[in-house]
Amino acid sequence: MEWHFTSGNGLPGKYVSLTQSQANTYNSQTHIHSHRLTTIFWEWPSKVLVTLRYLAKGDFYSEVGDLQGISRSSVSRSISVVVAALDRKLKTINFPTSNEELRIVKTGCFRIGKIPKVVGAVDGTLIPIIAPSEAEEVYVCRKGYHALNVQAVVDHQMRFTDVVAQWPGSVHDSTVMENCALKQWLTTTDQNWL
């Protein structure tokens, strides 16, 4: 039998192989309830599966947990750990800031559009959401449904380099751009364009 321990931050820890008799001895000597034991030895691949199910379907934590036989809090922890690990590993949304990074992006963008000093392409999109219980009316977008107005920037390789996902659907794209940190940076550098 192989049990997987996780480190304190939820990342995969050491793997321990036990014979069936060792596992039986451990189980008979411990006073930990079975649900606690499940939490302690909750395997990393299962955390990934729970997260993928949640992200793909948007189910409630209770529904995802029922499918895997775990609690809502375990689902929540699994999602948090997996998303944080992916973010650290992929180093996803990072705007180029060093001179070398900017040079690479500008060169790539120039090859595509023949416009100098371009560091990315920006656009806004409306992401549908369930109506919030407070200030519901400000989330109704111009198309008549509840949404977030999300602004995103991609580089020449179509990688996201900046995302602003904090504005309700009723807010115009220009307001999102005027109030984002990227606009301030573009204004101060004067050598870069979107």
Short description:
The termini are far apart.
Label the structural class: alpha+beta
Total number of helices: 8
User: Any idea what the radius of gyration is?
Assistant: 23 Å
Order of helices and strands: EEHHHHHHEEEHH
User: Strand count, sense and closure of the main sheet?
Assistant: 3 strands, antiparallel
Strand order of the largest sheet: 3-4-5
Distance between the termini: 55 Å
Number of beta-strand segments? 5
Can you tell me the residue ranges where pLDDT is under 50 for at least 5 consecutive residues?
1-41
Binned, the helix content reads 40-55%
Overall mean confidence score, pLDDT: 79
Beta-strand residue percentage: 15-25%
Shape: flat
How many discrete domains?
Answer: 2
Which quaternary structure do these chains form? single chain
What does this structure look like?
By secondary structure, the protein is α+β, with helices and mostly antiparallel strands. It has two domains: 2-90, no CATH class; 99-189, no CATH class. The protein is 45% helix and 19% strand. It contains eight helices and five strands. The chain has helices at residues 20-29, 34-40, 44-57, 61-68, 72-90, 99-113, 173-178, 181-189, and strands spanning 2-6, 12-17, 121-128, 147-154, 160-168. The strands form two sheets. The protein has a three-stranded antiparallel sheet. The protein has a two-stranded antiparallel sheet with strand order 1-2. Helix 3 (44-57) packs across helix 5 and helix 4 (61-68) crosses helix 5 (72-90). The protein is flat and about 55 Å long. The protein starts with a strand and ends in a 5-residue tail after the last helix.
